[in-house]
Structure formats: structure tokens, C-alpha cells
Design goal:
α3 crosses α4, α4 crosses α5 and α5 runs parallel beside α6. Strands 6-7-8-3-9-10 form a six-stranded mixed β-sheet, with helices on both faces. It is an alpha/beta fold and about 240 residues long. A hairpin with a 2-residue loop joins β4 and β5. It contains eight helices and ten strands. The structure holds adenosine-5'-diphosphate and magnesium ion (MG).
Length: about 240
């Protein structure tokens, strides 16, 4: 589903250049649930932004669902993002003056879907995240966990190939974090490919594979099952 090879990215500010990604190779198969871990500043968001076609690498290749993502103009990039990707952010990024239902329906409006169909579909995804009763509420009437569930419903509404989440539990307490992760797990159980950036070990352990970034390189890429088996063997 995702294939990247020898990916490099630097940020240039004035005369200085910061080499953030220094040759990343990695791939994600359809249906996987992968976490990207690493300390703050290790390049996790940079990598996710490139995967999300929000930014472009300087070198290397990125193929998404068989399509080479390279030199896209903003219009085509936006089309690919709509077609392939769903985004979940730490800060939810909901529109404050729109109801939960309207927030979920929003991306479908931009896809040109008719109002009735849009609303039906948005309601379906709100039900999926357990928020049918909150459809007419505004974001400021919802708890953090509820807001993130609305954001998950919104990300799912366009039935993307891949769900990308940058620190989806970063603004939530641990109990709520686990609840949100359980919803994300259930979405993966239905076959959705999911990538989650986190710096929290326990959150990463709720995915199926952990990719560890350090100093611009992947230093570890291990199935969670294997990590757990190893931990048990040492008990
Ligand atoms: P993480 O998400 O792992 O915390 P980031 O990918 O956000 O790390 O950032 C990696 C490094 O790149 C950091 O040192 C950060 O300050 C720098 N950086 C990120 N975005 C930019 C930018 N737009 N311009 C300049 N430097 C940036
Ligand atoms: Mg980040």
C-alpha cells in the first residue's frame, strides 16, 4: 500500500539546513496497523506529512497504492489526499461552529456528494464511533475523547485507503487514550491500513508493528507480537 525508498528531507532556514530524514526505507502492506515512534524532533511528523502528501521529500521515492507520488501540483495532491487518505490530528482540527454531524460530512461536501447521501453517510460513521446521540452538538460541547471520535468518523467518511494519525492521543488522558485506540483498533480489524505517530510506548503497543525513528533513520522495525513474546520470555 505504501512503499518508500531512500527518502531524504531537509529543512532550509536562511543559510542553515537541517537534515531531518536521512534515507528512510519502509513499506506498509494493506491492512497493517503501524506506529512510528521516536523522541520529539526525530522526524515523525515530517515523515507522516510526506506520506500524507502535505509535504514532499527532497530525494527518494514514495508510492501510494501503486501511484508514484512525485512533483504533484496542489490540485492533484489534494485530489490524491481526498481519494487515498484520512487524517487524524492531536488537536482534532474540528470546525467549531459546525455540529459533529456537519464536521463529519464536510469532506464529502468537497467530494461533491449530494446532501442527503452526505448526511446519511456522516451519521453512519458517527454511529460507528458511538456518537449518534451527539450528532447535533458543537465541538465545545464535547469532551476531548468525543472530539477525537468525531475526527475519526470524519477521517473515515470518505472511505480512505489509509488512515494517518499524528499523536491522536497526545491531548487525551490515558483512559480516554485507550478508548480512542480501541476504536482505531476496531477500524483496523475491519481491514483499514493505519499509521500512527506517537511517542508513547503503551499506545505504540496497541498497534501491530512499531517503527522506531532516531536521528533521521529507522533504527528498529518490529512486530508488536514479537516484542511481547520476547518480554514474556524474560519474565
Ligand atoms: P517530531 O514529529 O518527531 O517531533 P518533526 O518531524 O516535527 O519531529 O521535526 C523534526 C525536526 O525538523 C525538528 O528539529 C523540527 O524543529 C524541524 N522542523 C520541522 N518542521 C520544520 C519546518 N517547517 N521548518 C524548519 N524546521 C522544521
Ligand atoms: Mg510531531
Amino acid at each position: 500500500m505504501i512503499e518508500i525508498k531512500s527518502l531524504h528531507k531537509s529543512y532550509k532556514t536562511g543559510s542553515t539546513s537541517l537534515h531531518v530524514l536521512k534515507g528512510i526505507d519502509f513499506s506498509v502492506k494493506e491492512g497493517e496497523m503501524v506506529s512510528i515512534m521516536g523522541s520529539s524532533g526525530s522526524g515523525k511528523s515530517t515523515l507522516l506529512n510526506i506520506l500524507g502528501i502535505l509535504d514532499e521529500a527532497d530525494e527518494g521515492t514514495y508510492t501510494l497504492d501503486g501511484v508514484l507520488i512525485k512533483n504533484l501540483n496542489e490540485k492533484i495532491a489534494a485530489r490524491y489526499r481526498n481519494k487515498f487518505l484520512g487524517f487524524i490530528f492531536q488537536s482534532f482540527n474540528l470546525i467549531n461552529y459546525k455540529t459533529a454531524l456537519d464536521n463529519v460530512a464536510m469532506p464529502l461536501y468537497y467530494q461533491g456528494m449530494k446532501r442527503n447521501e452526505r448526511m446519511d453517510r456522516a451519521m453512519h460513521y458517527l454511529e460507528k464511533v458511538g456518537l449518534a446521540d451527539w450528532a447535533t452538538h458543537l465541538p465545545n460541547e464535547l469532551s476531548g475523547g468525543q472530539k477525537q471520535r468525531v475526527a475519526i468518523a470524519r477521517a473515515l467518511a470518505s472511505d480512505p485507503k489509509v488512515l494517518l494519525a499524528d499523536e491522536p492521543t497526545g491531548a487525551l488522558d490515558s483512559k480516554t487514550s485507550y478508548e480512542v485506540m480501541e476504536i482505531i483498533q476496531s477500524i483496523n480489524d475491519e481491514g483499514k491500513t493505519i499509521l500512527i505517530v506517537t511517542h508513547e510506548e503503551d499506545i505504540a503497543h496497541m498497534t501491530k508493528r512499531i517503527v522506531h525513528l532516531k536521528d533521521g533513520l529507522i533504527i528498529n522495525d518490529t512486530p508488536v507480537q514479537q516484542i511481547k513474546a520476547k518480554a514474556e520470555a524474560h519474565v
